[in-house]
Amino acid sequence: MNRGSAVEAAVEIGQTIRAQRREYNVTQKDLAQRLDMSEKTLRAIERGSSSAKLESTLRVITALGLQFQVRRHTDRTYGASLLP
């Protein structure tokens, strides 16, 4: 996965989180308080910012009843250029 793909994935995850939060009619402030995190952190997650820590993102995903799944790409050459 190149940097562009990683950024796109982070943005897509953030958009999914934002949509789910809004579906539950929960504000960023309320969700951040419930998770004992700053609103700034939650905003960064929802924007797909590279400053957002994976641990924080996973806490939000879990709290909203979402799942995060990592799968092996079906094309074996995908990402192979990163390996020795």
From TrEMBL:
Domain of life assignment: Bacteria
CDD domains (alphabetical): HTH_XRE (cd00093)
MF GO annotations: DNA binding
SUPFAM superfamilies: lambda repressor-like DNA-binding domains
Domain HTH cro/C1-type span(s) in chain numbering: 17-71
Pfam families per the UniProt record, alphabetical: HTH_3 (PF01381)
Signal peptide: none
SMART domains, alphabetized: HTH_XRE (SM00530)
Name of protein: Putative transcriptional regulator
